[in-house]
Write a structure and sequence with these properties.
The protein has 927 residues and is mostly beta strands. It is built from eleven helices and 57 strands.
């Protein structure tokens, strides 16, 4: 920890020392900024182009700026909703500059940085980029502007919770999207334990959000390993450019079929102040609270979700309800009563286990900025994000009081940056819902010693008053001590299991309604005190190299993991001496871009090395050909790779489908299931069905038909790779009223990382406890099957009369793969989806509105949680706004999924209903 900060501080000081070339001569420019009607514009950004020197206009539209250099230089005047104007100051006599800004924006004039890591025209970007600017953030029809990303070209949004939206691009979607990166002001927001972005729970509040840029597809050549299927770069407002006090109050309700309406509230505040254009600070805070969507499908069987039969009434013996927990583990009673087969315990409802259904988000950040020179700025930033939500992976988890903290130090100029940051996570009171239900059942009535014998006796007619051969009656007898939801005994039982940690010796007892005492047998909570350390730098040789644009960069990262044995395998030998798991990796890259008349070529290459895997080289080549000033063709060849995430390397986690095992050799070798040490699950099940078993001491087959057993040749997990070819077109037509963006791509994947369930051949042990042969493991594996994906996207913006704007997009995606029972690619993407909307910020004075409709066709969802055909659905969102200049406020009224029915985005997710809200936003500069 000390080394991390010492190294960062020394690096910052070295760059400051080399960059502090302060010129003695200075020039003061003053004047005013007005609109076309002569009305003063407060809060206009005035910046010396190519430097960090700048100021803003005051409430009367006046400004004064001292520039520490002699003319000539260029001043840039920009304001939200107005065309940016640049004015050259040619000599020292030009000390007064009066400016009139024209309202409106020009199509394609945006500047983006994500495509090449330096500012460039959106029209001439060599890769597909989607951007949501500050105006679109303000006009988003959703209560959380982040959810407006679902309307972007190429974006698929998956809702695991009301406040947890997972963004996916280029297919292979999951709730836990480890193939996608989300940055907030240059910091990777992935939690080291979870390895995926948690949406806008850890993000930027609406009052401080300036823009979001998204690259769909491979971005590893510039952004490193995890930018495999895309990267989202979120940028907050500078306290130099956006000053003053702003506050927002948002109130709404959520509606869901069969569930009472619930309130939604959000309070936000921001304050920023600059002093003499040298020092500035900002403070932000946002609190959102609501009731989460309810997952209440209790009739669907996870094993057979397509069936129209209600398996819960009458309950089939091996029913695993979609939103029931504790019914996942299968008990094979065939050897005792062949007519029974597989039986599962009775599950508990999600709404009873997550009785508060809290969806909460708390965001806070503070930043200090200091301009060392007119070209160098230093800053420190603290950011906190946390709350409560539902997360779905192989199982479902209730995240409660989960939090993540960021500390960053950065120094930057117009051609370089160097930043170092630390993230730290705390699981709070989070717990595993499946483990909660299972250990509640085991506490009430242990399966092996009580529940199964009671069930069998009842089925055989040995229990007075219970008819023989009646599964429902036998189950009711075996469950007779289960407490009813809402009773003190039920609450005490839930709290007992939640008070204990998963994979830890349980303590405490539960008292049943008859006074009987039951010792706790397991826990559902998990622990997380993991950290991520990251240092990154970039330098662009603008002054040194004139014949081309050249830049280099690099980073070092350490995952510092600690779950106290509840998730990661920190003490496999004795279960006592838990040691932090550390994973180091580094990367470096270079980019060169050169223009040849109308053709611009960019080549880049990156090298990354993770200590557990071989180094990876990811090259990229892009071409942009300018047909004319407003029409460009682009082509690119990009490569990407993804290191197995931290869980894929070091997890040890018993689940209903087998023990999830990280397959890095350092973690998995001791269990002996790799490189021929396991049987395929199907062959082992067939062997057991033939009457066979494995000797507990030697693992040798005993009885049955041993010829049925087939070896599963599972290799240790390695990085997965991809190669993408893309071609695109951007053009402006119809007298600069129509913008078209068209792209098509083809991607080939190698070493696709997934899971495979196998049965161990030999006995082993974990934390000193014996593990029998035939135990099911679910290691992370690389598929040897070929997987390709391909698709196309079309986006457009059309400026209609009277300032109306029509936006839309269409996306097609498909794939090919050699799939079978052991490998399913999990494409999880509709072939066809699209969005269309119309908006106007000023339908008439101070009044604006927008409406948007998005639609997607049905598609197959495949995951470790289950397989299901997601039905098609369409969502209509709308908002209207009214500006009240006298109180410097905007009143906004909106709703989502208007007139639509509840829908689900994936198997296991809750039904998403409607949200209606009203907000009032105060801004000192009405900016």
């Amino acid at each position: 920890m000390k080394k991390f900060y010492t190294w960062s501080l020394l690096s910052l000081l070295l760059i400051v020392a080399g960059s502090a070339n302060v010129l003695a001569q200075s020039t003061t420019i003053s004047g005013s900024v007005k609109d076309a009607n002569g009305t003063p514009l407060p809060g206009v950004n005035i910046v010396v182009k190519g430097t960090v020197a700048g100021t803003i206009s005051d409430v009367q539209g006046n400004y004064s700026l001292t520039v520490k250099q002699a003319p000539p230089f260029t001043l840039s005047f920009s304001f939200i909703g107005y065309q940016t104007q640049e004015i050259e100051v040619k000599d020292g006599a030009s000390t007064t500059v009066e400016v009139t800004l024209t309202e409106g924006t020009l199509l394609g004039e945006e500047v983006v940085v994500s495509g090449s890591r330096y500012p460039e025209s959106y029209m001439k970007s060599a890769v597909t980029i989607e951007k949501m600017d500050i105006l679109e953030i303000k006009a988003a029809p959703t209560p959380d502007y982040y959810d407006g990303l679902a309307n972007m070209k190429g974006v698929q949004a998956t809702s695991g919770s009301l406040n947890f939206t997972a963004i996916n691009t280029r297919s292979f979607a999951t709730i836990a999207n480890v193939r996608f990166v989300q940055w907030v002001d240059g910091m990777d927001t992935q939690a080291p334990l979870l390895n995926f972005p948690t949406g806008n729970i850890i993000g930027i509040g609406e009052l401080d959000a300036e823009s979001m840029e998204l690259i769909p597809g491979a971005a590893s050549a510039l952004y490193g390993p995890n930018a495999f299927n895309g990267i989202l770069i979120m940028k907050s407002k500078s306290p130099f450019e956006y000053q003053g006090l702003s506050a927002q109050l948002k109130y709404g309700i959520t509606k869901q079929s069969g569930v009472p309406s619930n309130p939604l509230t959000q309070y936000s505040i921001r304050y920023a102040k600059a002093f003499n254009n040298k020092f500035a600070f900002k403070l932000n805070g946002t609190i959102m609270q609501a009731k989460d969507w309810l997952g209440n499908d209790y009739r669907t069987d996870r094993v057979n979700p397509e069936s129209t039969v209600d398996f819960s009434n009458p309950r089939k013996t091996n029913f695993d309800g979609l939103n029931l927990y504790g019914d996942e583990t299968q008990i094979n009673l065939q050897s005792v009563m062949p007519s029974l087969g597989i039986v599962t315990r009775t599950g508990f409802r999600e709404e009873d286990l997550v009785d508060d259904r809290e969806a909460k988000s708390i965001k806070f950040d503070a930043a200090l900025h200091y301009k060392i020179t007119d070209k160098v700025e230093a800053l420190v930033n603290y950011r906190y994000g946390g709350g409560s939500s539902i997360y779905q992976g192989t199982e479902k988890y209730a995240l409660r009081d989960f939090s993540q903290e960021f500390i960053k130090a950065e120094i930057k100029g117009d051609n370089f940056f160097l930043r170092g940051y630390q993230t730290a996570t705390d699981a709070g009171k989070s717990y595993n819902l499946s483990a909660l239900g299972a250990y509640m059942n085991e506490t009430v009535s242990p399966s092996s010693t009580n529940w199964v014998p009671d069930y069998l006796l009842a089925m055989q007619g040995y229990i007075p008053g219970v008819p023989a051969g009646t599964p429902d009656a036998a189950r009711a007898f075996a469950d007779r001590n289960r407490p009813a939801p809402g009773t003190p005994e039920f609450t005490n039982l839930v709290n007992l299991v939640k008070s204990n940690y998963f994979q830890k010796a349980a303590t405490g007892t539960w008292t049943d309604p008859n006074g009987g005492s039951h010792p706790a047998v397991g826990g559902a909570s998990f622990f997380d005190n993991s950290k991520l350390y990251h240092i990154e730098g970039n330098y662009q040789f603008r002054e040194m190299i004139k014949w081309a644009d050249v830049q280099v960069g690099g980073n070092w990262r350490q995952y510092n993991l600690f779950s106290n044995g509840t998730i990661f395998n920190e003490a496999p030998n004795d279960g006592v001496n838990f040691e932090r798991i550390k994973i180091n990796e580094f990367g470096m890259y270079g980019v060169i871009a050169k223009s040849f008349d109308k053709l611009r070529a960019t080549a880049s290459v990156r090298y990354d090395k993770n200590e557990n895997f071989e180094g990876q080289v990811t090259p990229r080549l892009t071409l942009v050909y300018e047909l004319n000033e407003t029409n460009n063709i682009r082509a690119s060849y990009q490569t990407g790779f993804r290191n197995p995430d931290t869980q894929a390397q070091f997890i040890y986690f018993p689940s209903s489908g087998g023990i999830l095992l990280g397959s890095a050799k350092a973690n998995a070798e001791r269990y002996g299931i790799h490189e021929g040490g396991a049987y395929t699950q199907a062959s082992y099940n067939a062997f057991v069905a033939s009457g066979g078993s494995l000797d507990a001491t030697t693992g040798a087959p005993v009885g049955g038909n041993a010829n049925l057993l087939q070896t599963a040749n599972v290799a240790y997990v390695q990085p997965e790779k991809q190669w993408t070819s893309e071609i695109g077109y951007k053009g402006i037509w119809l007298d600069k009223k129509l913008l078209i963006d068209l792209n098509g791509f083809y991607t080939s994947y190698s070493g696709f990382i997934g899971g495979q369930i196998v049965a161990s051949k030999n006995p082993t042990s974990h934390q000193g406890v014996a593990i029998r042969p035939g135990t099911l493991f679910s290691p992370y594996v690389n598929s040897t099957r070929e997987v390709t994906s391909f698709g196309a996207g079309l986006g457009f913006t059309y400026k209609l009369p009277r300032d109306f704007e029509l936006n839309g997009n269409y996306n097609y995606a498909n794939y090919t793969a050699q799939e079978d029972a052991d490998f399913r690619a999990g494409f999880n993407t509709p072939k066809n989806r699209g969005s269309i909307g119309i908006s106007n910020r000023k339908i008439f004075k101070n009044f604006g509105a927008g409406i948007n409709y998005r639609y997607q066709t049905a598609f197959l969802w495949e995951s470790s949680y289950g397989t299901w055909n997601v039905p098609e659905f369409g969502v209509l969102d709308a908002q209207v706004s009214y500006t009240v200049p006298s109180i410097k406020s905007v009143i906004k009224l909106g709703g989502t999924n208007l007139g639509g029915g509840d829908y689900r985005t994936n198997l296991g997710s809750p039904y998403v209903g409607q949200q209606y809200y009203i907000s009032i936003t105060f801004d000192e500069f009405l900016k």
